[in-house]
Amino acid sequence: MTTSLAPRPANEERRAKAVIQTGLIDNPKPELFQVYCDLAKDITDFDTATFSLFDNDFQCGMASAGRDDYEVGGKGERHSNNICSYVLLSSEPLLMPDLREDPTWKNHPAILDGSSIWLGYAGFPVINRDNYALGTLCMLHTSPKAISETVIPLIQKITKNIAFLLDLQTDQKQLTSEKMLEAASAFQKDFPTLSLADFKLFLAASAGRAIDANNADGLMNSGLLELDADEVILTRKGRNLQESMKIQPKPLNRIKISGSDATEVLDEMLSKLN
Asked: Is the residue at 255 inside a domain?
């Protein structure tokens, strides 16, 4: 084997774009995924379990269990000797109980020279709702080890949960951006002479933070803020602007349920959390 680039999926450009849109490549959130690595390690009884995302060029570590040397956010090149890169090429797991006996990977340089500490391998693609393999959940073992047929569906359920979180990250990032753009447009439309600093200060006041009156001249002169017993608060005009910016908090609807209905709702909520 050479150290050329690993083959890319047919939808690589769109796939890599979807990875970037999660916002996790440069800002990993291992707390979201650690539990899934722990579960995968425990369920398979492999030595390690690692979840990675793959951008255009690199395998990017998100979370891991069983590795003291693991670096969250660490990046490794997607070259031809990077086994996990090949997991992206199929919707089915890549299972190799003994790398030394695999027709392809027995020729891996680390296998040939005996330097590899890993022999058992099980890699599962993490496929999002748009059918893009954004990453992998890979298990490694220091001795030959096969993953049982009964465990495979359990790991696939874990990868589906990870994929759901990735889609959720993308949705939340997009929704936050759209809300901010909408709020900024409404603010600028109604008060074109106010600055970005005024916009940020108004958001802070809307969030209930303490505001220094000495910095709020523009907002106070525009009638959006006022002093009340030495405290800067929103005026009626300010609250109306909150509404047009769609940052006014709305009360939750109260739903009264009881008996078996309540039990069913609770069970459904818990099942979704699980």
From this structure: no
Q: Are residues 167 and 225 in the same domain?
A: no
Q: What is the pLDDT of residues 142-190, one digit of tens each?
A: 999 999 999 999 999 999 999 999 999 999 888 888 888 888 888 999 8
CATH number of 227's domain: 1.10.10.10
CB 120 within 8 A of CB 12: no
Its pTM surpasses 0.90: no
Residue 208 is predicted with a pLDDT of 86
Domain count, the chain: 2
Q: How far apart are CA 138 and CA 124, in angstroms?
A: 6
Whether 137 and 53 have beta carbons less than 8 Å apart is answered as: no
What CATH code is carried by the domain that includes residue 64?
3.30.450.40
Among 139, 171, 203, give the residue marking a domain's end: 171
